[in-house]
Write a structure and sequence with these properties.
Helices cover 41% and strands 0% of the residues. It is mainly α.
């Protein structure tokens, strides 16, 4: 029985990318957790709501990413340490609050970390157990905005990407049902036509 449980957990770890996604694995997991916890809106912790609209190819990271400053601020404020859904999305490279690159390697053992493992614990390395937040005094958000590792172009592009994805995720509870594909296609066509007409106007 123990070996079977270990195999089942190993299979779950190997498919951890799908846990935040839109497929059958996350549907089964959400339904099981909702029965166990009696909480009915756990699907909002995933992108399951947008399953008919968002393409899943290369949507999620295969390894963990995190903001060292977020972790440290949460620790100092004695808040819950967790992994935001935003950090798992492959297109998101920068923390929207602190405008610094998400970290992809443990600062202690320099290892990339799986999304889920036997020793997973939010805020800590699953390889060596080291704390993943900043060990130095935390600077204010305004001091970190002009991070030297980001060019203005990168910062502008990433800020827009993160804000759009963040708005999509945060707006999910306000929808009774996902927008229809046809409506999204119409809206995109209107935007494209408007931009095209604007660019074609004589100067």
């Amino acid at each position: 029985m123990k070996s079977r449980t270990s195999r089942d957990l190993r299979s779950l770890f190997d498919r951890a990318t799908a846990i935040n996604g839109t497929g059958n694995i996350v549907i089964d997991l959400v339904q099981a957790l909702q029965k166990l916890t009696l909480i009915e809106d756990l699907h909002l912790l995933t992108l399951l709501f947008w399953s008919e609209i968002i393409p899943t190819r290369n949507l999620f990271r295969t390894q963990s990413a995190w903001c060292t400053v977020c972790y440290e601020e949460w620790r100092l404020a004695k808040q819950v340490i967790y992994k935001p859904l935003l950090w798992t999305i492959n297109s998101v490279k920068v923390c929207p609050l602190h405008k610094i690159y998400l970290c992809l390697q443990c600062p202690h053992c320099q290892q990339e970390l799986p999304l889920l493992s036997w020793r997973s614990r939010p805020g800590y390395c699953s390889k060596c157990g080291g704390w993943l937040g900043m060990n130095l005094p935390v600077k204010s958000s305004s001091e970190l905005t002009d991070c030297s590792t980001l060019s203005k172009e990168e910062l502008h592009s990433q800020t827009w990407i993160v804000e759009v994805i963040g708005e999509l995720i945060s707006s999910t509870p306000s929808f009774n049902s996902p927008p229809a594909k046809e409506e999204i296609a119409k809206s995109l066509s209107l935007v494209i036509n408007a931009v095209t007409n604007e660019l074609s106007l004589p100067v």
